[in-house]
Amino acid sequence: NLHYDQCAIVTRNSDAELALRVTAAQLIKKRRHGWLIERDTKVFGAVSKPARQKPIQLEYKAVSKVPNRVPILTGGAPHYHRVVSEANDVFNKHLDFIHLFVCREDIFFWKVIMKGPFGTPYESGLWLLYVNFGEEYPRRAPNVRFMTETYHVNINSDGKICHQIFDRGWANGTTMVDVFTSVFDLLKEPNFDDALSTEKTQLKRDQPDEYHRQAIDCTRRCAHKNLHELKLQFQLED
């Protein structure tokens, strides 16, 4: 037998099965390596996986407009003008369910406050999300995550959002207005066929009232801060 990591064993069966098992072992090893790279070095103790390290840009001041002055290196990036255009488009659309703030020191990092949709377990809450535009944007979608804890089948404990717009539904022409609208719609209509949490999916199927209660409870515990409090906490300026 060939051994790959401690959680996968490759047996000498068919070539197809061998390749499949090797690929699975490599993916598991890569994911664990990613957890270690992105782990929060300030968190200790026994955990199921390391706590995700928060982006340093969350500590930067952000403003509700495109900054007039940005670092020279930022302006030299090839996708700089696209990011500026997307920010201006969001501001000009005046979306009533989000507040956008662009980091002064890093225009490729946005902070977003999203309102919970009316008529859902999230309607009384405000959530902080961040957007991080990588070097491959717009060929690839930006990294968009919830910082505020959310009880939702398509959002995991790290704030990762499972939606096709970030994967197979992404295109070079996809706008950030499209992205924010899709995330907001996901809060209104969770996709239980493409869930990140099998436990929550099963709870919704077997005990829908309990699922609804837990979502409301999480909103009250984690998303209860008002706009002024969030602005102070995350250094957001109008």
From TrEMBL:
Residues 78-224 form the UBC core domain. SUPFAM superfamilies: UBC-like. InterPro entries: UBC, UBQ-conjugating_enzyme/RWD. Signal peptide: none annotated. This is UBC core domain-containing protein.
